[in-house]
Specification:
The protein is of the alpha+beta class and about 650 residues long. It is built from 15 helices and 28 strands. It has an 18-stranded antiparallel β-sheet that branches. An 8-stranded mixed β-sheet has the order 20-19-21-22-28-27-26-25, sandwiched between helices. A two-stranded antiparallel sheet has the order 23-24. A hairpin with a 2-residue loop joins strand 9 and strand 10. The longest helix is centred in the middle third of the chain and has 21 residues. It starts with a helix and ends in a 21-residue tail after the last helix. It comes from Micromonospora krabiensis. This is anthranilate synthase. InterPro entries: ADC_synthase, Anth_synth_I-like, Chorismate_C, Class_I_gatase-like, GATASE, TrpG/PapA_dom.
């Protein structure tokens, strides 16, 4: 059964019409109806994508538990990876669909959050103190779920809710109903996770939530929101995290476009678009981008551990994706995958779940994050009859918020402090340093995929890069340089196997005089071996940009750290020779160090928060890998000019 009217007639008779999906993508003036059989598969690689036929072929419902494919922690609730094998695809005019869909309220009872406000606030407090405060990461997303019971037939209720979302919501990336026979999902997701079309990979980090009501929101309040450091830093951090993913799935890395204001009926969000060229199978793209930092946190692997520690139930489909896979007319694979947020799941017995989450950063407050979960649920709850429908429902605002010149200026100003390396297009080879071309570098990853962005910058400078996890054995002598990278955790831990392994690696590199560069966690461990143990900061430097002096030159760079080494002098005598330190004038924090054959940076030169990062990275590489015939460590003379020349 493929025709919308036939499908709706079956539902009104109380008959299951079989699996289907009804989708409005972005602001299209039509809906797409997909029908076919369903199949459950174990892995993303098993999602069917038959060759030879253009158009959409499979719609996959990817649950959060698939994160285990990457070896990451989760509360495994066994939610299946279900695939709708598309055999029918038709387009329905939006006005025709609205006329046909049931126009009636949805009746529900017993609505309540599974975790009360006070308990959720206590969890927020623990994450801020015990996780961000102890160096486990920059931000984390903790969810809670509103549950209720639908009094109407579940599928009829979902279709009625879809109509209300189509009429009352705006700015959604996908508005949809998906019915597999075993479950029904209905929602209006604001966020594209990843798409692939004509070889162009795109991602869409969204963060920051401005709550408003009415057709004439308070523009002054919006301007205060756009200037709020918490909201600004939150978007920068998820931008960095998705750039890490783009550096993996797009061979030439990602370019940043934006920021923009995404306006919805109850909320406005700030967002960027990322784009890059890639050739991977789209199922690999899905796997390597599980899941968006806007619904997990960063760094990703440890964010999953933190979520598993603090969330007592599985996430089911929340934070997963819908993924529409197919081929274009030229036979190239296509992918369109929104994040499963602002989505309700309804069981065949009428049990309703609406999960929502808040992003916790160092500026977060428990009360603010509780309020944010309520606001994010508002649009879906209203459509499902669980909250008041806005008095202005269905009416367009008198003007878009983003049309205000002050708003446009505030958005544009957000790019002023960011690294042009990620914002500008460059000709191939434009950033190469002749003395570095062809030199081989091994990056040892300490469980933070910032290393993917580092690899992209190093390749742009002309080096040949190999990336290896910290626990993977292999030779290191074949490389001109070893970079010991960033990662979460306490560098002073005597029991963490990662810290022990990285200390042993650095000890070996120092003993053999092999050129070594250490970043963030690697820098902290290197400083410890030189007699400068790390100390926990009173306030974490997570997603913080600062102007500092690096060996005489002013540099603006981004930090993601809770720990730092400290020193009371600019020079240090060590068993490996004299070491020069770039220190904070106020507290002695060691921002960078260099000795003969080694160097370290506490900040992240690869971050979008580091406009001078590439210059600093190139300078230190010049120190460590001078031209042939020049002694190691003579690439700099103790100071540099302000432009790094």
């Amino acid at each position: 059964m493929t025709h919308l009217h036939d499908l709706l007639a079956a539902v009104s008779r109380g008959t299951d019409p079989g699996p289907f999906a009804l989708v409005r993508r972005a602001d299209a003036d039509q809906l797409e109806l997909f029908t076919g059989a369903t199949r459950t598969v174990d892995r993303l690689a098993d999602i069917p994508l038959p060759e030879g036929v253009s158009g959409p072929r499979t719609l996959a419902l990817v649950p959060y538990r698939q994160i285990t494919e990457r070896g990451f922690a989760c509360v495994d609730d066994g939610t299946p990876l279900e695939c709708l094998l598309v055999t029918g695809h038709e387009r329905v005019d939006l006005a025709e669909a609205l006329a046909a869909l049931p126009d009636r309220p949805v009746r529900t009872t017993d609505a309540a959050f599974d975790i009360g406000d006070d308990e959720y606030a206590a969890t927020v407090g623990r994450v801020l103190a015990d996780e961000i405060g102890h160096g486990e990461g920059a931000n984390f997303v903790i969810h809670r779920t509103l549950t209720a019971t639908v009094q109407d037939p579940p599928l009829a209720a979902a279709l009625a809710a879809l109509r209300r979302l189509l009429v009352n919501e705006r700015g959604a990336y996908w508005t949809f109903v998906v019915h597999t026979g075993t479950r029904t999902l209905v929602g209006a997701s604001p966020e594209r996770h990843v798409s692939v079309d004509d070889g162009l990979v795109m991602m869409n980090p969204i963060s920051g939530t401005f709550r408003h009501t009415g057709t004439t929101p308070d523009h002054d309040a919006l301007l205060r929101f756009l200037a709020d450091p918490k909201e600004v830093e939150e978007l920068y951090m998820v931008l960095d995290e998705e750039l890490k993913m783009m550096a993996t799935v797009a061979e030439h890395g990602g370019q940043v476009v934006g920021p923009y204001l995404k306006e919805m009926s109850h909320l406005a969000h700030t967002e960027y678009l990322l784009a890059g060229r890639g050739t991977r199978d789209v199922r690999e793209v899905l796997r390597e981008t599980m899941f968006a930092p806007t619904v997990t946190g960063s760094p990703m692997e440890n964010a999953c551990r933190v979520i598993a520690r603090h969330e007592r139930t599985g996430r089911r489909y929340y934070a997963g994706v819908l993924a529409l896979l197919g081929h274009d007319d030229a036979g190239r694979q296509t992918l369109d995958a929104p994040i499963l947020i602002r989505t309700a799941e309804i069981s065949p017995t009428g049990a309703l779940r609406v999960p929502v989450g808040a992003t916790l950063v160092r500026h977060s407050t428990a009360a603010g994050e509780v309020a944010e979960t309520h606001a994010k649920a508002a649009a879906v709850l209203a459509a499902l009859g669980l909250g008041p429908q806005a008095a202005t429902a269905g009416r367009e605002p008198t003007a878009r918020l983003a049309d205000d010149p002050r708003v446009r200026a505030a958005l544009a100003a957000r790019n002023a402090p960011l690294a042009r390396f990620w914002l500008d297009q460059r000709a191939p080879g434009a950033a190469e340093r002749r003395e570095l071309v062809g030199r081989r570098v091994l990056i040892v990853d300490g469980e933070d995929t910032f290393t993917g962005m580092l690899a992209h910058q190093l390749r742009a400078l002309g080096l040949t890069v190999t990336l290896r996890p910290w626990h993977t054995p292999g030779t290191i002598r074949a490389y001109d340089l070893v970079l010991v990278g960033p990662g979460p955790g306490d560098p002073g831990s005597a029991t963490d196997p990662k810290m022990a392994a990285l200390r042993a690696l650095l000890t070996d590199l120092l003993a053999h005089g092999q050129p070594t560069l250490a970043v963030c966690l690697g820098h902290q461990l290197l400083a410890g071996l030189l007699g400068l143990p790390a100390h926990r900061r009173d306030a974490p430097y997570q997603g913080l940009q600062r102007q500092i002096r690096i060996f005489g030159a002013p540099r603006r760079v981004g930090f993601y750290a809770t720990f730092t080494a400290r020193a009371d002098a600019d020079r240090l005598d060590t068993a490996y020779g004299p070491v020069e330190l770039a220190r904070d004038e106020d507290d002695g924090a060691v921002h960078a160090l260099r000795g003969r054959g080694f160097a370290g940076m506490q900040f992240h030169p690869e971050s979008v928060l580091s406009p001078d990062g590439l210059t600093v990275l190139a300078d230190l590489l010049g120190w460590l890998l001078p031209p042939a015939g020049t002694p190691v460590g003579s690439g700099l003379t103790g100071t540099t000019t302000a432009d790094g020349a």
